[in-house]
Amino acid sequence: MTVSNPYLSRARVRAALHALGLRPSRSMGQNFLIDGAALATIVTAAALTADDTVVEVGPGLGVLTWELVQRARTVVAVELDRRLAERLRTEFRASPNLAIIQGDVLRLPPATILAEHDPDAASGARPYKVVANLPYAITSAALRHFLSTPLRPTLMVVLVQQEVAARICARAGDLSVLAHAVQIYAEPEIVARVPASSFFPAPEVDSSALRLRIRPQPAVVPDQPEALLRLIKAGFLHPRKQLGNALPGGMAAMGMKIDRQRVLDALAAAGIDPTRRAETVTLEEWGAVYRALHHIW
Questions:
Q1: Which of 84, 160, 217, 284 is placed for a possible disulfide with 222 were both Cys, Cβ 3.0 to 4.6 Å?
Q2: Going by DSSP bridges, is the β-strand pair 98-102/186-194 parallel, antiparallel, or unpaired?
Q3: Which of 57, 95, 93, 45 is nearest to 73 (CA)?
Q4: Of 73, 54, 268, 256, which Cα lies nearest the Cα of 157?
Q5: What is the C-alpha to C-alpha distance for residues 169 and 191, in angstroms, rounded to an integer?
Q6: 162: helix, strand or coil
Q7: Is 185 in contact with 214 (CB distance < 8 Å)?
Q8: What is the mean pLDDT of each run of 10 residues along the chain (297 residues)?
Q9: How far apart are the C-alpha atoms of 116 and 103, rounded to whole Å?
Q10: Hey, is 77 helix, strand or coil?
Q11: 18 burial level (CB within 10 Å; 0-12, 13-18, 19+)
Q12: Geometric angle at alpha carbon 292, from 287 and 297, rounded to 5°
């Protein structure tokens, strides 16, 4: 893999950027992967087959794209930078299973991304995967974009900042809104650490290859996952406060005005000590609070 991929070269990256007159943008997260071992890890974790449809976010100069088109049935790559998108169309003009969309992935619902290039995947009749070196600036938003839609992928394998990956995979005692927002929909795991030296230009922090196995249905409250997440966000609005004070105040701030005693009663019904803080409360416990409260919302 690492020998034959023509895009896996620091010199080639430099030359391509020079030819495009492009200086990598930190705000757009333009850090190009040049590490063959890291690339192999991502591809292996994605377990691609010849029947797969894959969405790639931020293909850049095409190092991961090249691997995807060798293995998958259909690859749809969404690139924000117009110059990079045009270059990819030229470089991969001999790859009939690749489509390049120039645009902002956060403004394109998955069904829209897939509609023209794999109607079966767009309708939900065929599963799809997301495999990407995600731009750091949109990591959380991109994950939520694909997870909170009715047309969720079956698997996501993404490169993200190491710290973000750790937050996503956190357990009770170190939980966050981001951890819950992902874990409602997926089972996350860190596949490997990817050092900053694996990219050009090198970012200031290390990355991790993160694999998300998407649940067949959302956890805990499968029919109202976003309502559950809203409750969780309310609990984290004042994270340093004890939950007995933080949750009523947070709910009121988010327009969910409920008598404080009812909130305390719901915590008691869920078996949660009101002196605990939000980061200690598990997804299952939040589900119990939601079930105790939702009939009076």
A1: 217
A2: unpaired
A3: 95
A4: 54
A5: 11
A6: helix
A7: yes
A8: 75 90 76 95 98 97 97 97 96 97 98 97 97 94 97 98 97 96 98 96 95 97 95 94 96 90 96 97 97 79
A9: 15
A10: strand
A11: exposed
A12: 100
Cβ atoms of residues 48 and 54 within 8 Å: yes
E strands, 141-248, are 155-161, 186-194, 199-200, 207-214
Write down the pLDDT at residue 1: 46
Contacts of 216 (CB under 8 A, 6+ apart): none
Q: Burial letters for 194-229: b for 16+ Cβ neighbours within 10 Å, e otherwise?
A: beeebbbeebeebbbbbbbebbeebbbbeeebeebb
Helix (H/G/I), strand (E/B), else coil: 216: coil
C-alpha–C-alpha distance, residues 233 and 109, integer Å: 24
Q: In this predicted structure, what is the pLDDT of residue 126?
A: 96
Quick one: tokens of 85?
A: 């998108």
Strands 32-33 and 207-214: unpaired
Length of the chain: 297
| Contact indicator for 183, 286 with CB cutoff of 8 Å | no
Spatial strand order of the sheet with 74-79 comes to 98-102, 74-79, 53-57, 129-133, 155-161, 207-214, 186-194
Is there a contact between 5 and 66 (Cβ–Cβ < 8 Å)? yes
